[in-house]
Fold this protein.
Amino acid sequence: MLIITGKDISKAYGTDIIFEDVCFGVEKGDRVGIVGANGTGKSTLLGIIAGDIEATSGNLYIRNDFNIGYLRQQNHFGGSGTVRSQAEKSFTHLFEMEKKLEKLQLAIIDHESGTFEKDLEEYTLLIEEYERKGGYTYKSELGAMLTHMGFDEEAQNKEISKLSGGERTRLALSCLLLSKPDVLMLDEPTNHLDLHMLEWLEAYLDNYKGTIMVVSHDRYFLDRITNKIFDLGGGTLEAYTGNYSAFLVKRAEHLEAMRREYEKQQAEIARQEEMIRRFKQHGTEHLAKRAASREKRLAMMEIKEKPKLKQYKMKLSFEADFKSGGEVLEAEDLTKSFGSRKLFDHASLLIRNGERVCIIGDNGIGKTTLLKILMGLERPDSGYLRIGYNVNFGYYDQGQLLLDENETVLGEMKNAYHLYTDTEMRSLLGRFLFTGDDVFKQVRDLSGGEKAKLSLLKLMLSGANTLVLDEPTNHLDIESKEIVEEALMEFEGTLIIVSHDRYLLNTIPDRILELTEHGLVEYKGKFDYYLEKSGHSSGRQASEEGSPASVRDRDELELTRKLVKDSEAERKAKKQNEAEERRRQRRAESVENRIHEIETELADIQDEMSLPENASDPGWMHEKASRMAALEEEVTGLYDEWMELQ
C-alpha cells in the first residue's frame, strides 16, 4: 500500500536547482535509505515530505491516517526542563488518560452521583485502551530508552539548556522513538552515537513495525536497516530495491546499461545516416522514399544523454616528509579525571612505526582526551608517556576547532602554508572541490563536510609521519569517506584513529584498542574480530543463529534446487538465442557483401558509360542500362532484407 507518493517534485533556490521532476513512492513497511553526495538535496527531500520546506513544483500525496515523526539534523528544544521531563512529553496522551481514569474512579466511589453504571462502563473501556497503548509499561520503556541513548540517572535530571549538541540529538531521537509514529524520518540518526548505542538502535529499528525513511552516510547502518535505496544525484532520483550493498551492485549495472544503451544508440544513428546516404546515392524512387522515411524517423528519435559515469572527486593522498623511529609512542598507567569525574586509569599502550591503530569506546569515556595526551597537548593526572624519535604528529580534530572561523578558505590555507602562491594554492583547493569563488567563502559559512575537507587538505600538506585522526569520516558523504579510507590505506606512516565508523574499522586497523574506565583492551584484528571476541553481536545475527538448523537447511536445499532449475532453463534459452544471433549475423554479413559487390559493379558501369567511345554504341549502352536496372532492383530488395536483419 502506497502511503507517500511524490510526482514531478522540484526544488530550486533561485537559479540553483537542487533536484528536478523527481518521482518516488513509499509503501507501508518500507525501509528507505536516501543516499547521495553532499548538496544533492537529501535533507531537503525529507523536509519537503515533513512539510518544513515547500517544493518549487510538483505534487506530494501522504495518506491522512498516517502520522510522520521527523528527526532533523539540528534539534532545538524550547522552554526549560530536564532530559526526563522532555522525554515524558512523548506520553502526554497517557497522562491525560490517567487523569481521566482517576476522575472516573472518584465518580464510581461516589455511589450517589447517579451515573454509576455509565461511569463504570466508561472506566472499563478506558482502562483497556490504556493497557493497549502501553500505560503499564511506558515508565520502564522510557527509562530503558534514555539509558540506551547514554542518559544515566544523573544525566536524566540534567537541564536541557546545559546539553551539548550531541546530547540534544540523542534526546530528540529518544523522544521520537518513544512516540512511535507510523513513519519514522531520520536525518543522520547515527551522528553522536557510540558503537553500543548504534548496535542497540539497529536492533530496535529492525523490530520497528512502521515505515522508515533515513538519510545516512553510515554504510554499515544502511546495510542493516534498509530494503530500498533512493539515490539522489545530478538533480534526479533513482530507486533501487535491496540494502546499500545490493544498491552498489545494481547502480553499477544500471550505469553500465546506460553506457551500453547510449553507445548502441550512437551506433544506430551512424548506421541510419549511412543508410540514408547510400539510399540517396542510388537515385531510385523506391530508395529515395526509403531515405526520406529514415530521415523522418531519425529526426523523431529521442536522443539519449551521454551518461555521466565520472564525477569530480576529492583527490587525497598522505606522504610523510621523513620517517620516525621504530617506536612511536609508549604509555604506561595513564590516568585522567576532570574534577571528581574519572575518565580512565591504567591506560597503557605501545605503538610502532607503520602500525594502524583504531581506538573505540563509549561516548564520554575520554577518547579525544587520550589522543591529546598522546600528542603532548594535554597532561595526564599520572602515568608515563614517551614520544619516539623523529615523530611528527598531524592532527585532525573532529570539531574542526583548529580552523579560524573568521578567515576565508584561501586565507586559512595561505596562513598555514604561506610559501605556496595563490595559483598553486587554488589548484590544491580545486583537488578538494573548492573551485571558483568557493575559495573566498568564510570558514564559518562552510558546511560540516566542507570544513572536514579543508582540514584534510591541511593535514595532507603537513607531511606528518604520524597521523592522529579524531572521527575523520564524520560529516563526509559516502564517496568522500571511501576516498579518505583509500588514502589512509596507502599511507606508509603511523595511524592512530578514533572512530565509530564501522566500515572504516573493518578496513584500516591492524588492531583495535577499546578504551574503558579501567584502561585499554587490545583486539588484534578489525571490527568483525572485535565483535566476535568482545561478545557484541548484532541482534539480527543472533536471531539468525537461533533459527532451527533443520528448517534452515531444508529452505536452503529447496532454494538451491530452484536456482539450478532456473539456471538450466536460462542456459538453454541463451544457447538458442546465441545460435539465432549467429545465423542472423552471417546472413547480414552475406547481404552486406552482396550489396557492396553490386554497388561496385554499378559504379564501374557508370564510369564505362561516361566514356565517349561507349556513348556512340547504342546496343552496348542499352545492354548496360538493362544490367543497371536489374542490379538496382536487386540492391533495393537486399536493402529491405538488410534493414529487417538490423
